[in-house]
Hints:
Layout: E1 14-16, E2 23-25, E3 27-30, H1 41-53, E4 58-60, H2 71-84, E5 92-97, H3 112-126, E6 131-136, H4 145-157, E7 161-167, H5 171-183, E8 188-192, H6 206-212, E9 216-220, H7 242-245, H8 256-271, H9 276-285, E10 290-295, H10 300-307, H11 317-328
Parallel strand pairs: 3-4, 3-10, 4-5, 5-6, 6-7, 7-8, 8-9, 9-10
Antiparallel strand pairs: 1-2
Bound molecules: NADP nicotinamide-adenine-dinucleotide phosphate.
Amino acid sequence: MYQAETSRYDHMLYRRAGRSGLSLPAISLGFWHNFGGSDTYETGRAVARLAFDRGVTHFDLANNYGPPYGSAEETFGQLLRDDFHPYRDELVISTKAGWDMWPGPYGDFGSKKYLIASLDQSLKRMGLDYVDIFYHHRPDPETPLEETVEAMVQMVRQGKALYLGISSYEPDETQRFIDLLGRENIHLLVHQPSYSLLDRWIEDGLDTVLEQNGVGTVVFSPLAQGLLTSRYLGGQIPTDSRAARRVFLSPDDITPDLLEQLQQLDRIARQRGQSLAQMALSWVLRDHRVTSAIIGASRPSQLEENLDALKNLHFTKDELAQIDRVLQDA
Ligand SMILES: NC(=O)c1ccc[n+]([C@@H]2O[C@H](COP(=O)([O-])OP(=O)(O)OC[C@H]3O[C@@H](n4cnc5c(N)ncnc54)[C@H](OP(=O)(O)O)[C@@H]3O)[C@@H](O)[C@H]2O)c1
Protein backbone atom coordinates (compact mmCIF):
# COMPACT_ATOMS: atom_id res chain seq x y z
CA MET A 1 0.00 0.00 0.00
CA TYR A 2 1.22 3.50 -0.86
CA GLN A 3 2.38 5.52 2.11
CA ALA A 4 3.09 9.15 1.31
CA GLU A 5 6.46 10.55 2.38
CA THR A 6 6.22 12.06 5.83
CA SER A 7 8.59 14.83 4.74
CA ARG A 8 6.31 15.85 1.85
CA TYR A 9 5.58 19.34 3.14
CA ASP A 10 9.17 20.20 4.08
CA HIS A 11 10.47 21.62 0.82
CA MET A 12 7.55 22.70 -1.34
CA LEU A 13 6.75 26.38 -1.67
CA TYR A 14 3.04 27.22 -1.29
CA ARG A 15 1.52 30.41 -2.59
CA ARG A 16 -1.88 31.84 -1.79
CA ALA A 17 -4.28 31.97 -4.73
CA GLY A 18 -5.03 35.69 -4.88
CA ARG A 19 -7.24 36.98 -2.07
CA SER A 20 -8.44 33.62 -0.81
CA GLY A 21 -7.88 31.05 1.88
CA LEU A 22 -6.42 28.51 -0.54
CA SER A 23 -2.70 27.97 -1.03
CA LEU A 24 -1.35 25.99 -3.95
CA PRO A 25 2.05 24.43 -4.55
CA ALA A 26 4.28 26.60 -6.75
CA ILE A 27 4.46 23.61 -9.12
CA SER A 28 1.31 21.62 -9.85
CA LEU A 29 0.83 18.48 -11.93
CA GLY A 30 -1.31 18.51 -15.06
CA PHE A 31 -3.12 15.47 -16.48
CA TRP A 32 -3.60 16.73 -20.07
CA HIS A 33 -1.07 14.23 -21.44
CA ASN A 34 0.51 11.08 -19.94
CA PHE A 35 -2.57 9.88 -17.99
CA GLY A 36 -4.91 8.84 -20.80
CA GLY A 37 -6.28 5.44 -21.70
CA SER A 38 -3.45 4.92 -24.19
CA ASP A 39 -0.72 5.76 -21.65
CA THR A 40 0.92 3.31 -19.25
CA TYR A 41 -0.91 3.45 -15.93
CA GLU A 42 2.12 2.55 -13.83
CA THR A 43 4.20 5.39 -15.29
CA GLY A 44 1.52 7.97 -14.53
CA ARG A 45 1.10 6.43 -11.11
CA ALA A 46 4.82 6.79 -10.39
CA VAL A 47 4.70 10.44 -11.48
CA ALA A 48 1.63 11.19 -9.34
CA ARG A 49 3.13 9.46 -6.28
CA LEU A 50 6.42 11.30 -6.66
CA ALA A 51 4.55 14.57 -7.05
CA PHE A 52 2.58 14.09 -3.84
CA ASP A 53 5.67 12.84 -2.01
CA ARG A 54 7.34 16.15 -2.90
CA GLY A 55 4.44 18.34 -1.77
CA VAL A 56 2.61 18.77 -5.09
CA THR A 57 -0.88 18.90 -3.64
CA HIS A 58 -2.62 20.13 -6.78
CA PHE A 59 -3.61 17.91 -9.73
CA ASP A 60 -5.21 19.64 -12.71
CA LEU A 61 -7.65 17.78 -14.96
CA ALA A 62 -10.36 18.48 -17.54
CA ASN A 63 -13.32 16.55 -18.88
CA ASN A 64 -11.65 15.83 -22.23
CA TYR A 65 -8.09 15.00 -21.14
CA GLY A 66 -6.97 11.65 -22.45
CA PRO A 67 -7.07 10.39 -25.11
CA PRO A 68 -9.75 9.19 -25.29
CA TYR A 69 -11.77 12.02 -23.76
CA GLY A 70 -12.59 11.34 -20.12
CA SER A 71 -9.84 8.78 -19.65
CA ALA A 72 -7.48 11.04 -17.63
CA GLU A 73 -10.29 11.54 -15.12
CA GLU A 74 -10.83 7.78 -15.06
CA THR A 75 -7.11 7.31 -14.44
CA PHE A 76 -7.30 9.79 -11.60
CA GLY A 77 -10.27 7.84 -10.19
CA GLN A 78 -8.13 4.70 -10.28
CA LEU A 79 -5.24 6.52 -8.58
CA LEU A 80 -7.61 7.73 -5.90
CA ARG A 81 -8.82 4.19 -5.23
CA ASP A 82 -5.31 2.69 -5.38
CA ASP A 83 -3.20 5.31 -3.61
CA PHE A 84 -4.67 8.66 -2.74
CA HIS A 85 -7.98 7.91 -1.03
CA PRO A 86 -6.55 8.49 2.48
CA TYR A 87 -5.13 11.80 1.26
CA ARG A 88 -8.21 13.28 -0.44
CA ASP A 89 -8.34 16.24 1.93
CA GLU A 90 -4.66 17.00 1.30
CA LEU A 91 -5.30 17.35 -2.43
CA VAL A 92 -6.72 20.13 -4.58
CA ILE A 93 -8.36 18.57 -7.62
CA SER A 94 -9.52 20.73 -10.48
CA THR A 95 -11.47 19.90 -13.60
CA LYS A 96 -12.86 21.93 -16.47
CA ALA A 97 -15.39 21.99 -19.28
CA GLY A 98 -15.56 24.28 -22.27
CA TRP A 99 -13.87 22.45 -25.13
CA ASP A 100 -15.52 19.72 -27.19
CA MET A 101 -16.45 16.71 -25.11
CA TRP A 102 -19.38 14.83 -26.66
CA PRO A 103 -21.21 15.07 -30.00
CA GLY A 104 -24.08 17.43 -30.68
CA PRO A 105 -24.86 20.96 -29.53
CA TYR A 106 -24.71 20.24 -25.78
CA GLY A 107 -21.15 18.94 -25.47
CA ASP A 108 -19.06 22.07 -26.10
CA PHE A 109 -18.53 25.74 -25.11
CA GLY A 110 -20.42 27.38 -22.23
CA SER A 111 -24.14 26.62 -21.95
CA LYS A 112 -25.62 25.69 -18.60
CA LYS A 113 -26.85 22.48 -20.23
CA TYR A 114 -23.27 21.45 -21.07
CA LEU A 115 -21.43 22.59 -17.96
CA ILE A 116 -23.80 21.06 -15.40
CA ALA A 117 -23.89 17.68 -17.16
CA SER A 118 -20.14 17.70 -17.69
CA LEU A 119 -19.28 18.26 -14.04
CA ASP A 120 -21.63 15.44 -13.03
CA GLN A 121 -19.85 13.14 -15.48
CA SER A 122 -16.41 14.26 -14.24
CA LEU A 123 -17.34 13.57 -10.61
CA LYS A 124 -18.47 10.05 -11.56
CA ARG A 125 -15.31 9.30 -13.53
CA MET A 126 -13.08 10.51 -10.71
CA GLY A 127 -15.14 9.02 -7.91
CA LEU A 128 -15.36 12.37 -6.11
CA ASP A 129 -18.28 14.07 -4.35
CA TYR A 130 -16.93 17.49 -5.30
CA VAL A 131 -13.99 19.09 -7.08
CA ASP A 132 -11.95 21.75 -5.37
CA ILE A 133 -11.85 23.99 -8.44
CA PHE A 134 -14.13 23.96 -11.47
CA TYR A 135 -12.97 25.96 -14.48
CA HIS A 136 -14.75 27.23 -17.54
CA HIS A 137 -12.10 26.04 -19.97
CA ARG A 138 -12.42 28.76 -22.62
CA PRO A 139 -14.63 31.75 -23.41
CA ASP A 140 -17.76 31.11 -25.47
CA PRO A 141 -18.55 33.92 -27.93
CA GLU A 142 -22.18 32.77 -28.37
CA THR A 143 -23.49 32.00 -24.89
CA PRO A 144 -24.36 34.99 -22.69
CA LEU A 145 -21.74 35.17 -19.95
CA GLU A 146 -24.59 35.45 -17.42
CA GLU A 147 -25.65 31.88 -18.28
CA THR A 148 -22.15 30.43 -17.87
CA VAL A 149 -21.78 32.24 -14.56
CA GLU A 150 -25.22 31.05 -13.43
CA ALA A 151 -24.24 27.43 -14.14
CA MET A 152 -21.03 27.78 -12.17
CA VAL A 153 -22.74 29.51 -9.24
CA GLN A 154 -25.14 26.55 -9.12
CA MET A 155 -22.18 24.15 -8.87
CA VAL A 156 -20.90 26.01 -5.82
CA ARG A 157 -24.33 26.29 -4.20
CA GLN A 158 -24.87 22.56 -4.69
CA GLY A 159 -21.48 21.75 -3.17
CA LYS A 160 -20.12 20.15 -6.33
CA ALA A 161 -17.29 22.69 -6.65
CA LEU A 162 -15.64 24.55 -3.80
CA TYR A 163 -14.03 27.28 -5.90
CA LEU A 164 -14.33 28.59 -9.45
CA GLY A 165 -11.84 29.44 -12.17
CA ILE A 166 -11.73 30.48 -15.80
CA SER A 167 -9.16 29.71 -18.44
CA SER A 168 -7.89 31.65 -21.45
CA TYR A 169 -10.31 34.58 -20.97
CA GLU A 170 -9.05 37.98 -22.20
CA PRO A 171 -8.74 40.82 -19.65
CA ASP A 172 -12.12 42.47 -20.41
CA GLU A 173 -14.07 39.21 -20.31
CA THR A 174 -12.26 38.29 -17.12
CA GLN A 175 -13.37 41.53 -15.46
CA ARG A 176 -16.98 40.92 -16.54
CA PHE A 177 -16.86 37.38 -15.19
CA ILE A 178 -15.48 38.63 -11.86
CA ASP A 179 -18.20 41.28 -11.63
CA LEU A 180 -21.03 38.87 -12.45
CA LEU A 181 -19.77 36.36 -9.89
CA GLY A 182 -19.37 39.17 -7.37
CA ARG A 183 -23.10 39.91 -7.63
CA GLU A 184 -23.60 36.40 -6.26
CA ASN A 185 -21.04 37.02 -3.52
CA ILE A 186 -18.67 34.50 -5.03
CA HIS A 187 -15.04 35.35 -5.63
CA LEU A 188 -13.23 34.09 -8.72
CA LEU A 189 -10.38 32.04 -7.24
CA VAL A 190 -8.09 31.65 -10.23
CA HIS A 191 -7.51 32.30 -13.89
CA GLN A 192 -5.57 29.66 -15.86
CA PRO A 193 -3.74 31.21 -18.83
CA SER A 194 -0.82 29.91 -20.86
CA TYR A 195 2.44 31.58 -19.84
CA SER A 196 6.08 30.83 -20.59
CA LEU A 197 9.26 32.42 -21.87
CA LEU A 198 7.83 31.88 -25.36
CA ASP A 199 4.29 33.07 -24.61
CA ARG A 200 4.01 36.29 -22.63
CA TRP A 201 0.48 37.46 -23.56
CA ILE A 202 -0.68 37.81 -19.95
CA GLU A 203 1.81 40.64 -19.42
CA ASP A 204 -0.39 42.75 -21.70
CA GLY A 205 -3.09 43.55 -19.14
CA LEU A 206 -4.43 40.27 -17.80
CA ASP A 207 -1.83 40.24 -15.01
CA THR A 208 -3.06 43.64 -13.79
CA VAL A 209 -6.75 42.70 -13.91
CA LEU A 210 -6.05 39.59 -11.86
CA GLU A 211 -3.90 41.42 -9.34
CA GLN A 212 -6.40 44.25 -8.88
CA ASN A 213 -9.21 41.78 -8.28
CA GLY A 214 -7.28 39.45 -6.00
CA VAL A 215 -7.53 36.52 -8.41
CA GLY A 216 -4.75 33.92 -8.45
CA THR A 217 -2.83 33.09 -11.63
CA VAL A 218 -2.22 29.41 -12.33
CA VAL A 219 -0.23 29.18 -15.54
CA PHE A 220 -0.28 26.28 -17.97
CA SER A 221 2.38 24.95 -20.36
CA PRO A 222 5.22 26.86 -18.65
CA LEU A 223 7.68 24.63 -20.55
CA ALA A 224 5.93 25.37 -23.87
CA GLN A 225 4.98 21.67 -24.07
CA GLY A 226 8.60 20.62 -23.75
CA LEU A 227 10.25 23.15 -26.07
CA LEU A 228 11.79 24.85 -23.02
CA THR A 229 13.59 21.70 -21.89
CA SER A 230 16.57 19.69 -23.06
CA ARG A 231 14.21 17.57 -25.24
CA TYR A 232 14.91 19.23 -28.59
CA LEU A 233 18.11 21.19 -27.88
CA GLY A 234 20.30 18.85 -29.91
CA GLY A 235 18.21 19.49 -33.02
CA GLN A 236 16.73 15.96 -33.03
CA ILE A 237 13.12 14.94 -32.37
CA PRO A 238 13.21 12.05 -29.86
CA THR A 239 10.78 9.34 -30.95
CA ASP A 240 9.06 9.30 -27.55
CA SER A 241 8.56 13.09 -27.41
CA ARG A 242 5.37 15.12 -27.74
CA ALA A 243 6.61 16.69 -30.98
CA ALA A 244 7.10 13.22 -32.48
CA ARG A 245 3.45 12.42 -31.73
CA ARG A 246 2.45 15.48 -33.83
CA VAL A 247 -0.81 16.16 -32.05
CA PHE A 248 -0.40 19.45 -30.18
CA LEU A 249 3.26 20.01 -31.03
CA SER A 250 4.97 19.17 -34.28
CA PRO A 251 8.57 18.95 -35.50
CA ASP A 252 7.71 21.87 -37.82
CA ASP A 253 7.29 24.11 -34.75
CA ILE A 254 10.99 23.69 -34.02
CA THR A 255 12.42 26.06 -36.61
CA PRO A 256 16.17 26.75 -36.86
CA ASP A 257 15.57 30.25 -35.36
CA LEU A 258 13.68 28.82 -32.40
CA LEU A 259 16.35 26.19 -31.85
CA GLU A 260 19.03 28.88 -31.80
CA GLN A 261 16.98 30.84 -29.26
CA LEU A 262 16.48 27.78 -27.06
CA GLN A 263 20.20 27.04 -27.14
CA GLN A 264 20.96 30.62 -26.06
CA LEU A 265 18.45 30.35 -23.23
CA ASP A 266 20.04 27.07 -22.22
CA ARG A 267 23.42 28.80 -21.95
CA ILE A 268 21.93 31.42 -19.60
CA ALA A 269 20.35 28.64 -17.56
CA ARG A 270 23.69 26.82 -17.25
CA GLN A 271 25.32 30.03 -15.96
CA ARG A 272 22.65 30.05 -13.26
CA GLY A 273 23.40 26.42 -12.40
CA GLN A 274 20.04 25.31 -13.81
CA SER A 275 18.78 23.27 -16.73
CA LEU A 276 16.67 25.05 -19.33
CA ALA A 277 13.50 23.48 -17.90
CA GLN A 278 14.40 24.66 -14.41
CA MET A 279 15.12 28.20 -15.56
CA ALA A 280 11.86 28.32 -17.54
CA LEU A 281 9.91 27.38 -14.42
CA SER A 282 11.85 29.74 -12.16
CA TRP A 283 11.18 32.50 -14.68
CA VAL A 284 7.38 32.18 -14.60
CA LEU A 285 7.48 31.90 -10.81
CA ARG A 286 9.73 34.99 -10.45
CA ASP A 287 6.50 36.96 -10.52
CA HIS A 288 4.86 36.56 -7.12
CA ARG A 289 1.44 37.00 -8.68
CA VAL A 290 1.88 33.60 -10.33
CA THR A 291 0.39 31.24 -7.77
CA SER A 292 1.39 28.02 -9.47
CA ALA A 293 2.87 26.65 -12.69
CA ILE A 294 1.14 23.51 -13.95
CA ILE A 295 3.61 21.24 -15.63
CA GLY A 296 3.31 17.96 -17.46
CA ALA A 297 5.77 15.08 -17.04
CA SER A 298 5.93 11.88 -19.06
CA ARG A 299 8.25 10.21 -16.52
CA PRO A 300 9.34 10.69 -12.92
CA SER A 301 12.84 11.95 -13.84
CA GLN A 302 11.30 14.98 -15.62
CA LEU A 303 9.28 15.83 -12.55
CA GLU A 304 12.35 15.47 -10.30
CA GLU A 305 14.28 17.86 -12.51
CA ASN A 306 11.42 20.35 -12.68
CA LEU A 307 10.78 20.43 -8.94
CA ASP A 308 14.41 21.34 -8.35
CA ALA A 309 13.69 24.65 -10.10
CA LEU A 310 12.33 25.83 -6.76
CA LYS A 311 15.87 25.92 -5.35
CA ASN A 312 16.55 29.14 -7.27
CA LEU A 313 13.70 31.50 -8.12
CA HIS A 314 15.85 34.62 -7.99
CA PHE A 315 17.02 36.40 -11.15
CA THR A 316 19.51 39.24 -11.29
CA LYS A 317 18.60 42.25 -13.41
CA ASP A 318 21.37 41.24 -15.77
CA GLU A 319 19.99 37.72 -16.22
CA LEU A 320 16.50 39.08 -16.95
CA ALA A 321 17.97 41.52 -19.48
CA GLN A 322 19.94 38.74 -21.17
CA ILE A 323 16.78 36.63 -21.43
CA ASP A 324 14.78 39.54 -22.84
CA ARG A 325 17.47 40.16 -25.44
CA VAL A 326 17.33 36.53 -26.60
CA LEU A 327 13.55 36.65 -26.80
CA GLN A 328 13.52 39.97 -28.67
CA ASP A 329 15.94 38.62 -31.23
CA ALA A 330 13.35 36.03 -32.27
N1 LIG B 1 -6.41 25.51 -19.53
C1 LIG B 1 -5.99 25.07 -20.68
O1 LIG B 1 -6.54 25.36 -21.74
C2 LIG B 1 -4.78 24.18 -20.70
C3 LIG B 1 -4.10 23.93 -21.91
C4 LIG B 1 -2.94 23.15 -21.86
C5 LIG B 1 -2.51 22.62 -20.67
N2 LIG B 1 -3.22 22.84 -19.50
C6 LIG B 1 -2.80 22.28 -18.20
O2 LIG B 1 -1.41 22.49 -18.03
C7 LIG B 1 -0.76 21.22 -17.84
C8 LIG B 1 0.63 21.27 -18.37
O3 LIG B 1 0.61 21.47 -19.78
P1 LIG B 1 1.79 20.90 -20.65
O4 LIG B 1 1.83 19.42 -20.51
O5 LIG B 1 1.70 21.50 -22.01
O6 LIG B 1 3.03 21.54 -19.83
P2 LIG B 1 4.56 21.70 -20.06
O7 LIG B 1 5.12 21.51 -18.69
O8 LIG B 1 4.83 22.96 -20.78
O9 LIG B 1 5.01 20.47 -21.01
C9 LIG B 1 5.05 19.18 -20.49
C10 LIG B 1 5.82 18.24 -21.41
O10 LIG B 1 7.16 18.68 -21.59
C11 LIG B 1 8.06 17.57 -21.53
N3 LIG B 1 8.87 17.76 -20.32
C12 LIG B 1 8.49 18.18 -19.08
N4 LIG B 1 9.53 18.26 -18.25
C13 LIG B 1 10.62 17.90 -18.95
C14 LIG B 1 11.99 17.80 -18.63
N5 LIG B 1 12.45 18.11 -17.41
N6 LIG B 1 12.84 17.39 -19.60
C15 LIG B 1 12.41 17.08 -20.84
N7 LIG B 1 11.09 17.16 -21.21
C16 LIG B 1 10.21 17.57 -20.27
C17 LIG B 1 7.19 16.33 -21.47
O11 LIG B 1 6.85 15.96 -22.81
P3 LIG B 1 7.39 14.63 -23.54
O12 LIG B 1 8.28 13.88 -22.58
O13 LIG B 1 6.16 13.89 -23.89
O14 LIG B 1 8.11 15.12 -24.75
C18 LIG B 1 5.95 16.87 -20.79
O15 LIG B 1 4.80 16.08 -20.99
C19 LIG B 1 -1.68 20.23 -18.54
O16 LIG B 1 -1.50 18.90 -18.10
C20 LIG B 1 -3.02 20.77 -18.14
O17 LIG B 1 -3.32 20.39 -16.82
C21 LIG B 1 -4.33 23.62 -19.51
